Amino acid sequence: MDAVVVLSANAIITAVLPAYLLIVLGVLMRKARILRAEHDEPLMHAVYQIMYPCFILDKILGSQALKQGSVVGWSLGIGFSELLVGMAVGVIVGRWMQLQKGAGLRTFGFSVGIQNFGFTAIPIVQALYGAAAVSVLMVHNLGVELSIWTFGVMVMSNDKEIPWKKLINGPAVSVVLGLLLVACGLDRYFTGPVREMMKWLGSGAFPTALLVTGAIMIDMVQVERPSLRIALFGTALRLGVIPMIILSAAKFLPLALELKQVLIVQAAMPAAMSPLLIAKLYGGRPGIAAQIIVVTTAISLLTLPAVIAFGIRWVLG
Q1: What is the rounded distance in angstroms from the CA atom of residue 213 to the CA atom of residue 109?
Q2: What is the pLDDT of residue 4?
Q3: Residue 138 host element (H or E)
Q4: Helix, strand, coil abundance in the chain, percent, nearest 5
């Protein structure tokens, strides 16, 4: 109950607002041609392969929560399962909407099925719950990545072949390395100037990524023709139905406190950017993904504090 008292509505809004302000700033920087389209790829490459892995290692090393095998197992399992459950809900509703395979059904299901688990979620988890919950979120996110690049890609491409090389990336390697170091008790040796350098690099990952996210989103708004039906049903599922499924898992499954905290924030998140990339690479409908991403991100600025406040009271209260 103490957590409910401390995390008031104002505290939640204060915690989530900086991430959204950075997205808006990215929009303005694109409009002013300060952040240009040719900057996006090199900036995100630096973030994804260097800065973000440093952040992950810094948060995992020394984490007491991750010394428990059950916490690691549940975090991976739930992260992997979220896409499966969310996409199933999306496909069922998509069929009811009379969407067809090859005409947007799989992209719709994928886009509503996976929430933003990275650059927007992480700073909010850190602001609300601190380093312990962030370390658990890193393991949860590895489960999400595994689900995206195995099950998600197979569904989107209608192919049985899994692009295993995509799983060997900076964030995934840093999570696995961090968990091994913690399990072996070697993480206590990572101190001093090297650890401080990791903190500095990691602290720049999210401002940079959120600026680029805002810039990319305004590009999508200008290019894609909106569909009211896709926007309405996508928003209802991503910000209404699926959050209740995630919060129910947090409420009724025997999870560690840190993982419950992670799931409360995950339930409130808008659609992830990943489906746009997967749709482009594997023959989906990027326009549908773009609409759901833009609309749910915009609306989540209003719904996110309410979902988190409800989750805290229902799950932790």
Answers
A1: 22
A2: 41
A3: helix 131-147
A4: 80, 0, 20
Measured distance CA(283)–CA(253) in Å, rounded = 37
Residue 118: pLDDT above 60?
A: yes
Residue 76: count other Cβ atoms within 10 Å of its Cβ. Answer: 20
Mean pLDDT of 65-73: 93
309, 12 contact by CB (below 8 A): yes
| Integer angstrom CA distances of residue 153 from 93, 95, 104, 113, 128 | 20, 20, 15, 13, 33
Q: What are phi and psi of 184, to 5 degrees?
A: -90, -5
Looking at the chain, the number of H-run helices and the number of E-run strands are 17, 0
Which amino acid is located at 309 in the chain?
A
pTM comes to 0.87
Contact between 109 and 87 (Cβ < 8 Å): yes
Model confidence band, residue 2 (pLDDT cutoffs 50, 70, 90): very low
pLDDT at 277 (0 to 100): 78
- 37-62 CB burial, b ≥16 within 10 A, e <16: eeebeebbebbbeebbbbbbbbbbbb
- State in Å, rounded, how far the first CA of the chain is from the last one: 5
Mean pLDDT value of segment 109-128 = 90
8 A C-beta contact, residue 78 and residue 147:
no
Nearest to 128 by CA among 249, 286, 3: 3
Nearest C-alpha neighbor of 146 from the set 210, 212, 94, 75: 75
Q: What is the pLDDT of residues 49-62, one digit of tens each?
A: 899 999 999 999 99
Q: Is a pLDDT exceeding 90 seen at residue 34?
A: yes
Q: What are the backbone angles phi and psi of residue 115, rounded to the nearest 5°?
A: -85, 165
For residue 160, pLDDT over 70 is answered with no
| Token pair belonging to 309 | 């406040």
Domains detected in the chain: 2-316 (1.20.1530.20)
Q: What angle do CA 199, 169, 58 make, to 5 degrees?
A: 20
Long-range pairs of 192-200 with CB within 8 A, sequence gap ≥ 24: 195/58, 195/61, 197/54, 198/54, 198/55, 198/57, 198/58, 199/54, 199/58
